[in-house]
## 1
Amino acid sequence: MALIVQKYGGTSVGSVERIEKVAERVATLKEAGNDVVVVVSAMSGETNRLMELATSIMPQPNPRELDVVLSTGEQVTIGLLCMALIKRGCAAKSYTGSQVRFRTDSTHTKARIEHIEDERIRADLADGRVVVVAGFQGVDKDGNITTLGRGGSDTSAVALAAALKADECQILTDVDGVYTSDPRIVPKARRLDKITFEEMLEMASLGSKVLQIRSVEFAGKYNVPLRVLSSFEDGEGTLITYDEDTNVEQALISGIAAKRDEAQITLSGVPDSPGVAYQILGPVSDMNIEVDMIVQNVGADGLTDFTFTVGRSDLDKAMSCLQERIETCGNCEITSNDSIAKVSLVGVGMRSHAGIASKMFKTLSDEGINIQLISTSEIKISVVIDEKYVELANRALHDAFGLDQVPD
Amino acid sequence: MALIVQKYGGTSVGSVERIEKVAERVATLKEAGNDVVVVVSAMSGETNRLMELATSIMPQPNPRELDVVLSTGEQVTIGLLCMALIKRGCAAKSYTGSQVRFRTDSTHTKARIEHIEDERIRADLADGRVVVVAGFQGVDKDGNITTLGRGGSDTSAVALAAALKADECQILTDVDGVYTSDPRIVPKARRLDKITFEEMLEMASLGSKVLQIRSVEFAGKYNVPLRVLSSFEDGEGTLITYDEDTNVEQALISGIAAKRDEAQITLSGVPDSPGVAYQILGPVSDMNIEVDMIVQNVGADGLTDFTFTVGRSDLDKAMSCLQERIETCGNCEITSNDSIAKVSLVGVGMRSHAGIASKMFKTLSDEGINIQLISTSEIKISVVIDEKYVELANRALHDAFGLDQVPD
């Protein structure tokens, strides 16, 4: 007897057959005595189809009207899923973002959630209905349709779970949980039963595509227990919570994440003076280019090297932006490298343990892998290496930190 | 300087290219100084695609959820059309049925319009915007999405025109107006500049597919001048109004309509007693079979023949329903004929003129066409004939009543 919010992504509802399977699963959960709210995405391919229609008319579509068009994708899914539930004798009712008063600000195509009215949903649950809500979409104070941006359905589910004070928010996807590393790279990778919000945030932002970052932040902020499950297989999945085990025997490292879609830009011989970092990165961020790692070392002779990474697809834009403003950095030399990879160790355990970094560096050195950049946070160490070593580094670190072993 | 409501059907917005053409036309109307509200249907094929998705899950889809699914069709069109207008520098804003508060009752899939809030639209028009509204859909008092049934976009447009007291409601379609008869059958058929609501109603209900009947009723009730125009070509189209010309020289007959999709059922030797008509038709209408013409002649020997017509697709259902209840009609003989056609003369002029019927019967007789059934109303005479004569009858009557001549 619990209140569960389940979210099914586009692949899970990608065909009539899959929608039937989702209905089967939801009906079973309901029959077991739970209150169930389901959040769904558009059928896979649908959002792309709608986007193509829009861009074929207007290459940069008007944001308000784009939201009107895109939000139809989830609306179709909620109706179809309700039909599949009702056919099974499971009372169900659908809500669009507007109908459930999923209130957001007015930033079309990437709106922020402000408030969710829960009265209608609670009334339906009390009447024994499964409630099916369109993910990804909301409504602003003037009644305009808004969307939360790609992947926003995860955030919709978590926000609904928070508003309803649900016992758990389950994200059903095409993987059966969060792994210690990418199983396609590290065959020994192990599914984690549990991971903290902070760790998951680092994993997510480092390229583990299981969950959308905003949804993890949201779940952490409102302390919504989040579970990642396979929508195709049975299993416990991975639970993401605050329950930090204080046992010192816990694993130091929860997982290893790798990211290949970055490129690195280095400005050599930059004047080592106040404001130079801003002078370099200001114009870059003005062009809406997101910067990830930033490394600046102590300078000598009044000059220093300044390195940062950007998304690989933004490299050309960033380079020409810098070339144009070369005087900013005192005619320094600008070089770039787009065959890099970032490998990161993540774990709340590393807070209380020294030696993780040195073990990491030694492991990579033993394999002959040169480290180009290092960046650390409280629960993460990231290194940038030559892209060709990414699988090797991943496997070596997985072994070195014994991630294939279930911690005692 | 007028307030014009334009409605574009599915074919007119059936592709990105056609949506661009519609935008062109709307922008021109706006630039000429008019206030313009546009009502659009789903892109052609889209409603069928959505219906197939729904019925593949639930052969008789849940009506509330079906409306949720189907209403997305028009929602995509309004967004795309607004983009095409905005691209042309023509300010535009889209509204779904819910957003414009197109209030209906809760009869899902065939809701009736109750009230339309016009404040938002008026504010947008005052701001110089073209307003684009999703046809076919509304919202009930509880915020549930409803649809008006197939072809409901015409009705949406007329209702909006009535609410806004528009100067004209223009229905843009794939024909360039209302004709004296079907031009594919009668090459001499002539486009009418003007026709009355009543005549149009009879024409529409008799199979002239230019306009949906409900929209004509609505336009008549609220006296909304309605104009049928081609969305592909220029032209004045046909204006439908109350302006009845009292000139006695006016045309007696406005048009000829033919309908082929009916079948006739005859019960011979029915007891000529009170209540027998109800006993026969009661069970038929209980099965939701619509009955069109009903003819019963004076009986002899306490027995009579009872004939009625139903949609051809309902014939088998109606026949087996009657066979099961054969005792109702005193074991009379039941026969049916599904190769019939109904040909009708329509015209407000016939009210004040005798002799129309006899001229019609003589014309058919001269061509050797036997009349099987006759039914009349104030402004219409319908006859049922063998289907194979339908084109011949149509052309002969068109000639006999001089419909190819513009009236003086």
## 2
Amino acid sequence: MTIRDLLFGRPLATSMERAEELGTVAGVPIFGLDALSSAAYGPEAALTLLIPLGAAAVAYAIPISASIIVLLIIVYFSYRQTIAAYPSGGGSYTVASENLGVYPGLLAAAALMIDYVLTAAVGISAGVGALVSAAPSLLPHTLSICLGILAIIVIINLRGLRQAGIIFMVPTYAFVLSLLGAIGFGIFKSITSAGHPHPIVAPPPPATHAVQAVSAWLILQAFASGCTAMTGVEAVSNGVRAFRDPTVRTAQRTLTLIIGVLIVMLAGIAYLVRAYHITATDPGQAGYQSVISIIVVAVAGRGAFYYIAIGSVLVVLALSANTAFADFPRLCRAISQNGYLPDGFNVRGRRLVYSQGVYVLAFLTGALLIIFGGVTDRLIPLYAVGAFLAFTLSQSGMVAHWRRVKGAGWRRSMIVNGIGAVATGITALVVVVAKFVHGAWITVLLIPMLIALMVFVHRRLDRAAKLMASDAPLDATALQAPMVIVPIRGWGKAAQNAIRFAVTISKDVEVLHIVDECDPSASTLQQQWPALVEAPAQQNGFPPPKLCTVESPYRLIIAPIIGHILEVARQNPNRQIAVLIPENVKRHWYDYLLQNNRASALTALLLLKGHQRIVVVNVPLDIGV
Amino acid sequence: MTIRDLLFGRPLATSMERAEELGTVAGVPIFGLDALSSAAYGPEAALTLLIPLGAAAVAYAIPISASIIVLLIIVYFSYRQTIAAYPSGGGSYTVASENLGVYPGLLAAAALMIDYVLTAAVGISAGVGALVSAAPSLLPHTLSICLGILAIIVIINLRGLRQAGIIFMVPTYAFVLSLLGAIGFGIFKSITSAGHPHPIVAPPPPATHAVQAVSAWLILQAFASGCTAMTGVEAVSNGVRAFRDPTVRTAQRTLTLIIGVLIVMLAGIAYLVRAYHITATDPGQAGYQSVISIIVVAVAGRGAFYYIAIGSVLVVLALSANTAFADFPRLCRAISQNGYLPDGFNVRGRRLVYSQGVYVLAFLTGALLIIFGGVTDRLIPLYAVGAFLAFTLSQSGMVAHWRRVKGAGWRRSMIVNGIGAVATGITALVVVVAKFVHGAWITVLLIPMLIALMVFVHRRLDRAAKLMASDAPLDATALQAPMVIVPIRGWGKAAQNAIRFAVTISKDVEVLHIVDECDPSASTLQQQWPALVEAPAQQNGFPPPKLCTVESPYRLIIAPIIGHILEVARQNPNRQIAVLIPENVKRHWYDYLLQNNRASALTALLLLKGHQRIVVVNVPLDIGV
């Protein structure tokens, strides 16, 4: 078992695909972690904006949460239908591009890609933020912890979906159960005390007195921030194919479970905020405590239960990035199948994962984390835009779908999706307007850039494919064996091996000896050449290879070889040139580090600087070391 | 001009080497930044350890600094002689390995490598620490800023030495002048006030009352910490070759300038600490202020001068990592010339820099910064060990050198170096003992591991070289043209081009068509084969290539090709197999991202999994896209 096997698991055959599929129980942690965990920061994001209202903020928790829950229910019914209509995976991209056209599809794709990258970065840094606020001594290590978690998520994802589900099951269910437990217990205490429960630990007083009167604009802002609680809801519809038979039913049941739990949590949090008079604390200031933490302390005190609940919040937040890792590669694959992203996104790796999507997401997430030093609060406004844009396009696409396909009860379905489209569309607009100056403009700017990039990729790939196509029969006229050039650094087994191969493929063989300006071995090899090479070649019926010596200043080995080859190519405009590069067989991974990689460098440079007539031949030599 | 040229500068020819050499003025920033900047943290490190003494600590600043200065003077005279004796670069490694033997040399090499990596990391993070303590809102971005500075230093270094010298000149001289200015002004005020100067801003009171009585052990600890002020002194002797003619004189003058300024700064700081009753503040605590900052504020107040001084301290600290970047690659090169590190360290890049050393150092420094979250205070104890071990070995080597070489005044020279060896040897011991539990044990552990690694590298390289050597004449018996296999994914220009080359080099050509299980094109190509390929080949006198179809499950393209090739190789144990891989000429950098890299992957895998009989031929096709 290699280190690679240990880290990423043994390779899986395609036939094992069925065994990698998910049921409802494993599906929730994988496709629901993002949606569920947003209960931990969505309400907080809304309440933070209400801080200027002082104690009065409490009154607005319930109406804002209620509108978000209504939106959530609308979106739920819309996506249920989408899953049924697109059992092979109906992400916003697929639905929009199939029903609305290429550009709306690319718009959805760009919005989703941005959303996923931001989700991954914000999830990890929110989890680490929770950890750091619990253990302030870790503060200087924020970024390193973020990157460590990112690495763990990447490794888990490269191992395959099913294992990820199993690994994430424990923290997900711990989170759901402990949060629901706290909410239930809080509601029970509130009811038994006639709506005036006595907190075990009093919540911190409002950060300020009311410095600002309530305004529609402020409430709109808070609503827009609270909408981040809805991101991640589209994940299930993207990944339908990953579910077990009956695929559609399993996926729908998973979606129901996720959204049901999310609604209960959002409603419960809003109720408790009201009942316990909880206001948010300022995240940038000393004494900051998250809303969830205030609630749990108020309801249950700072005992073992508190640590389990807060611990699971932390883990779930950090791992919510995993949803992005489950979906982003599938999204990229769908886009690349239509030719708008490179073909590499369509290749499954050894564990049946679309590895390249995982790498790209890991790179972008890591870059964001490093740029923002692991504190990505300021990114939160950016990412509701992408999510709601994708929602809207997906729902609008479904409306077009029903109009086109018709089928049983299509009118009712169309109305459901239509309501979803309108509701999410309005929300998207609200979010863009409310958050424009806070960073939504970046998303608005990035989306057309991404679309332009994908169109560019499509054009290049399309053009290349057209130029590569040909139905003509083989043109075998005017063919001639290539001129062979064998660059060597001295006489030895590598040179002998390469020359042995060279003489079998052509009559024109030139050995190119690169020598230092003051190296005596040059003239020695020149003198010995007849005995070493020419005589044995002629005895066996081969034309004798020529020796050509090129002097080179000490630091350069590759440049004079390439110069010579290009010169030979220029002088022989009708010949192909085959460059034979002796290369050692590397039996150990460390051989790649130990042996000089001039052979690979030369190969790469020749393919880069050379042209169609220069063929590169790697002749391996196994010295058994 | 490409992006690469813009970032790293245009390539330099070897003949331009002289123009890249340094005078004294540019040499100080490059080879002295590390030594000079340590004035900013050495005294502070010593004083921090004296915090438990309360106000009494002030009394020990002068004796501790005095002993460090004496040590510095001893080391100065020793290294002056080393430079003269080793004009081609007499780093500790060279001197120790030439005079004391292979293992003492490797010991010095390992100690220095550890020292340089730590210097780079500690320098950057100390600079950023100063910045962050000036602007606390940047605290969360500590690591990102560290990595950003690392990136800048790497880019500057890849541009070449001379440019680095010019770029670093301004902050270096600003630092030296402003610190010397503050010291001079402070001493003037102190003298004019009969030794009791009135600080403009009073230094913070001692952090604690004397909670601990003074002990020899504590003073030893403080001395050991203060010795970090001496690291970086060996840099000039390592890089003598980089200086302008007369090389030795220029290098010696640079060394004199660096050590002279350093001594003045250390003495001045000690005097002012005493005169102004300055004690260190605890770096981990709120209200932390660096000793330099306290001194400058006390002497000159918090005006424009303060910001210039502290700003230059910050820049110089952050850039002190550059000394490591100037020296580490030269050290690795010297080691690789003796065969104890891979040959790659000996290759100069396009700007005459030993690029691979820069990469390795950048990677290790970046890793350390990430692991420690950009706060590397805890690494400081580790790195005086390496520095003093290297000092000792270098001086001992010089003693052996004089005994062997003799020459004019050799006895006097030997005594100077002997005193240096004894003094630095004792200090190294003191540092190891005083700092053992604080982290010096890590260095003590790492050094033998590094030595073992270098010995392993040497053994492997040596063995490979022996196995590759051969004086025998060419064995041209029993040679036969190879069997050629051309894997294609379909008929088109790529396939045509590859087959055209294939028929010219061998009579046995097999075209391997990989098809999906349910792809109809398989049978189509099979039917058209006689017309498309066989007929044109035969008409031109070539034996017709065979077509072989291999079915593959949809996700795999490379695996069945390799399986087939290995099978053919097994069935033909006496033949060479040439695998022709069609590859597109890539004209733009983005083509590498756009086009699938299956060709490169196949090449790499064949060279990995294949053996000596399998030759890989890359046939480029230029479609002019």
